[in-house]
Amino acid sequence: MRMTRRTLSVTAGALLLLATAAPAGAQAPTDTAGERGVYEITATGDDRHALARSGVDVLGSSGETITVVANPAQARQLEAADVDLTHVGDFDELLAERNPEVSDPRAAADEFPEGDEAFHTYDQLTEVLETAAADHSDIVELSDVGETHEGRTIPLVKISGGSDADKPEALFTCNQHAREHLTTEMCLHIVERFTDGYGTDETVTEFVDSREIWVIPTVNPDGATYDISGGQYQGWRKNRQHQGTDLNRNWGYEWGCCGGSSGSPTSDTYRGTEAFSAPETTAVKNFVDSRVVDGEQQIKTHIDFHTYGELVLWPFGHTTDETTEDMTEEQAQRFQQVGTEMAETNGYTPQQSSDLYITDGDINGWMWGEHNILSFTFEMYPGSGGGLDGFYPGAEHIEPETQRNDEAVDIALREAGA
Ligand code: 3K0
Ligand code: ZN
User: Fold this and answer.
1) Could you give the CA distance from residue 27 to residue 80 in angstroms, rounded to a whole number?
2) CB < 8 Å & 24+ apart, contacts of 200-206
3) Active site residues
4) Ligand of minimum distance to the alpha carbon of 313
5) Mutation to probe ligand 1, out of 220, 249, 356 (largest number of atoms < 8 A from CB)
6) Which atom of ligand 1 approaches the CA of 315 most closely?
7) How far is the CA of 99 from the centre of ligand 1 (A)?
8) Average pLDDT for residues 87-107, to the nearest whole number?
């Protein structure tokens, strides 16, 4: 697909036409390798909701500019609907440019590309978690929430010390989206901080003794492993069930309700055949459901880490309304207050999820709508402008960008007991 490079803008009418006349579900599966284009579109407010509804893969946004990946059919439909695109490159060429040459792809299978070895593969992650559990057996329990489509176990770490008294619980989840590898490092950092720091760091010790801290470092290890297959980044977002389901559109609260996901299996925001059709979301759901003890959900707060955009997001994503039948004004204010306080510590931008674009079947909606868990999504580094590179920021960013969220994590732990 070749398009001329132009800088144009988009109208709300054009995007609405696109969204209604050309639903992603009606598209032929033409997003074959080598043909997907990366485009920039200028859009605000309702325009960007409609764009998300079209099923294109939104990579990131900066101000009014949204960067998307569109397959040829989607690009044609955008053009037919008078949407103006700036073609910034071919998806696979851009990926190839940022990937190093691999002399023997088989040798590099399931390893991060050269220079990025500090990121943990699934096997390396498993090993580090096993070591942490062995070295800190007084406070760490390592188990799993279930299996992925390809049969990998989804690890679950529980960190808790001191007495056996009932303690408020907090949950941290990472790597729902395959290519967002920095988030796995974020959860690993949480595990390391609350284990290595126990007994020496006062804040850490207090939280470990007074809370149950649950961490799921990779919700989507199949996708993450595929994303680095052959020692090259694949730009993969979804799980590996059939053509892939976007796990963050597969949760059972307002699933598929509001144009915030796609019904087309080829789309990067494919919501799956039904709510919880993905084994990965089902596994996490079953774990969270199991924390209801004597009718009370023990988990009080939750952060789901993503990249990128440097945002603190709170529910709901399926509506731009701040209050709904499941979100009172007081509750919305608490989300806003806590989210804003968190954002003051890490410099992210705090906002309701739907301010970014409409999402439905997302994790925050389910955590709050089903369990009244104060649930946030953090979009980590970088802030903007990275295109595909935003997902692959380089290993030198692991330490500063995970530490950057220490205080916000502490706020989530504090609020669990509030
Ligand atoms: O709640 C949300 O708005 C989630 C935003 C998230 C998503 O699932 O679309 N953004 S991401 O895919 O770029 N990490
Ligand atoms: Zn994500």
Assistant:
1) 14
2) 203/410, 205/161
3) 379
4) 1
5) 356
6) 1
7) 25
8) 73
Distance 222 CA to ligand 1 centre (A): 19
All structural domains of the chain: 110-416 (3.40.630.10)
> Whole-prediction pTM value?
0.87
Average pLDDT over residues 254-267: 97
Q: Which atom of ligand 1 is nearest to the CA of 58?
A: 13
328-368 confidence digits (pLDDT tens): 999 999 999 999 999 999 999 999 999 999 999 999 999 99
Q: Where is average pLDDT lowest: 8-17, 83-92, 195-204, 376-385?
A: 8-17
Ligand 1 atom closest to Cα of residue 362: 1
